[in-house]
Amino acid sequence: MKKLIINFTPTGMIPTKEMTPHVPVKVNEIIEDVHRAYELGITMTHIHARDEKTGVPTYKKEVYADIIEGIRKYAPDLVICTSLSGRNFNTLDKRADVLSLEGSLKPDMGSLTLSSLNFNKVASMNAPSMIEELATTMKSKGIVPELEVFDVGMINFGKYLVKKDFIRPPLYYNLLFGNIACAQTNLLHTGVMLNDVPDDSLVSIAGIGNGQLMMNSLAIAIGKGVRVGLEDNIWFDAERTTLATNEELIKRIHVIAKANNREVMTPTEFRVHMQMEPGHGKYGRVYK
Questions:
Q1: Mean pLDDT, to the nearest integer, of 226-252?
Q2: Is the predicted pLDDT of residue 1 greater than 80, yes or no?
């Protein structure tokens, strides 16, 4: 079994303070939650920025810069992925704004959703041209795509991007299950998705809502990584009687991992496998 990737997703675009007081929204809250998770043991973090006054998702690189600077003060090796989501913003200049950060503020990775899809009440628009433009920008900046996949066809589109040299192996996939219009949280959907992932790719598995614990547990049992955090699920129990904290969700993953004899992959080990810079002032990947 491979070492366990823990991809920590503290905030997302949906949870608000009205929904749960535990979701980190302000810059200092996100930094603190990532710091606590880092001390417990994680491999990487997938961050979303929020406006400091309104709490509404923002694409602005200045907010991301503050978050990244705060995280790297305590965790200079941690792999940081920034969201390039098309759910709220769907112009290239906004979605790619954070990719212009450089030096010690440069993100290691940027999320790249491999097709358009519907959520419960809103669509995430990812036209082929937008995906290709984001991938091209990331490659030019030395930033590695975090491939977000909600259904099996998206994996095939990722293979197309490799063939056309928009993205290059080694690859890292997040497979997300339980969204209303996409792959569901069952073994057949999971097996079909995993069967199509290219060899030698790193994979983390996520479940949305009540599916988070199930899919994380399955991932740990079969030797894959996990994506976990309040972005995907704000409840600690399936009955939805107890609101979770990010710290509690990370601790539970560690308990399950220990029961399965899975060691957590360190950020450095992830960087080596993904042919990325070592951190500590050098971030992303040098494309040759």
A1: 98
A2: no
Which residue reads 């003060």 in tokens? 73
3-state SS, one letter per residue, for 115-147: CCEECCCCEECCCHHHHHHHHHHHHHHCCEEEE
Which pLDDT tens digit goes with each residue over 17-52? Answer: 999 999 999 999 999 999 999 999 999 999 999 999
Mapping DSSP onto H, E and C, the string for 159-207 reads HHHHHCCCCCCCCEEEEEECCCCCCCCCHHHHHHHHHHCCCCCEEEEEE
Beta strands in the chain (DSSP E): 6-8, 44-47, 49-50, 57-58, 79-82, 109-113, 117-118, 123-124, 144-149, 172-177, 202-207, 225-228
pTM recorded for the entire structure? 0.97
Q: Residues with Cβ < 8 Å from 242, sequence gap 6 or more?
A: 235, 236
Say if residue 157 is exposed, middle or buried (CB neighbours under 10 Å; 0-12, 13-18, 19+).
middle
- How many alpha carbons lie under 13 Å from residue 253 in its C-beta half-sphere? 32
Q: Once rounded to an integer, what is the mean pLDDT over residues 120-129? A: 92
- Beta-bridge partner residues of 81: 46, 109
State the pairing for strand pair 225-228/202-207.
Answer: parallel
Q: What count of residues does the chain have?
A: 288
Q: How many angstroms separate the CA atoms of 147 and 109, rounded?
A: 10
